[in-house]
Amino acid sequence: MTTTSERVAGSRARQASQRVSQSVFDGSRLRVVLLVDVYDGAQQQFLEAYEQLCNQVASVPGHVSDQLCQSIENPSQWLITSEWESAPPFLAWVNSEEHVAMVEPLHSCVRDTRSLRFHVVRETGGPAAAADQAKRRLQTAPRIGDGVIRHALTFTVKPGSEEIVAKILADYASPEPKVDDTTRLCRTSLFMHGNRVVRAIEVRGDLLSALRHVSRQPEVRAVEEAINPHLEQDRDLNDPESARVFFTRAALPAVHHVTAERQDAQAERYALHYPTRPDRGMKLAELLARQDEAAADDPRSPVLRSTIFQRDDVVVRLIDVRGGLEAADPVQALGLSDPGQVAELTTLQDDAVGASASKDGRLARFLELARMDLVTDRRSPDA
């Protein structure tokens, strides 16, 4: 049995910083596991839908292989595993409208699904596989997390309804933070930028259990119903398929999280929205991740914690800042060091400051344009 541990140092995977607890940008391979519960009697229908999906996904850039397995104990339980060259191409596909349409035939025969995603850290194989394994990218070291899962939802409301929606979202009663003995809601931060709403949540335990728990709370259901008339994308929360499609499109996954060694209980939370140019969202998110990783090693940086959320061309950066955003260095707060980077990757406009303005002046203006309005920031007791 030959392990690849000795070969990891020579792979293309990037050395993991101990301050980065989550990242999709280290270049290592990705293993995706999908647990599926199929309706009784629908196994053949499910198999046919999977084979159609399999043929389509085979041509997706970055896809390597997949397997379909059926439980030997319960024929209703299936397992789909797929391998990808790295996380970014998988996320680009799974978050696309193409994917939403591609998996639609599965929903009529599936009772429940659960998706899990893993970077490959180590693998073993016989001598014949050693040469091939040496070329396969592995995560160089395990991530050291804090037990908190970070996720966000984003959607847009009809122009002109922003103030009404902000009031609805600010006034609701907080749901019960305890989900079960192992899962707890820690923090919910809600921001708006124009007509875009972003709700970031932090959960200790199981994210899916927490999301289901929140969706069943009466106070949350009342808020969701109240904002329904103002949404740009119609939905019916009483229709499972309508709700599923809405929340699938609203999902804004965290792609990078870094925490500096120094912390401050009084640090203030902000969110920045970076409207990206077409097909540049992933590149922008990776650039911000690199900047934040470097800032975590700088004792002068006021940014103590950063989470980057990205889906297609929507990029949001959630930061905890010591001393407030107004007093922060605009380069460190914005996460971009050059106005040229801003122009290349985003559609932020600087009409109020001419080209003759100083670099810091232009970046400060971009920071102002990217800053989201805080609607509510709630922490649960003992979070």
List descriptors.
alpha+beta, globular, 29% strand, 383 residues
Compose a concise summary of this entry.
This protein has helices at 43-57, 87-94, 97-102, 104-107, 127-134, 162-171, 207-216, 218-227, 240-250, 281-296, 330-334, 339-345, 359-370; strands spanning 2-3, 20-23, 30-38, 63-70, 77-84, 110-119, 124-125, 148-156, 184-193, 196-204, 251-259, 268-275, 303-311, 314-321, 373-379. The chain is an alpha+beta fold.
Layout of helices and strands:
Blueprint: E1 2-3, E2 20-23, E3 30-38, H1 43-57, E4 63-70, E5 77-84, H2 87-94, H3 97-102, H4 104-107, E6 110-119, E7 124-125, H5 127-134, E8 148-156, H6 162-171, E9 184-193, E10 196-204, H7 207-216, H8 218-227, H9 240-250, E11 251-259, E12 268-275, H10 281-296, E13 303-311, E14 314-321, H11 330-334, H12 339-345, H13 359-370, E15 373-379
Written description of the protein model:
By secondary structure, this protein is of the alpha+beta class. Strands 2, 8, 9, 10, 11, 12, 13, 14 and 15 form a nine-stranded antiparallel sheet that branches. Strands 4-5-3-6 form a four-stranded antiparallel sheet. Strands 1-7 form a two-stranded antiparallel ribbon. The protein has helices spanning 43-57, 87-94, 97-102, 104-107, 127-134, 162-171, 207-216, 218-227, 240-250, 281-296, 330-334, 339-345, 359-370; strands spanning 2-3, 20-23, 30-38, 63-70, 77-84, 110-119, 124-125, 148-156, 184-193, 196-204, 251-259, 268-275, 303-311, 314-321, 373-379.
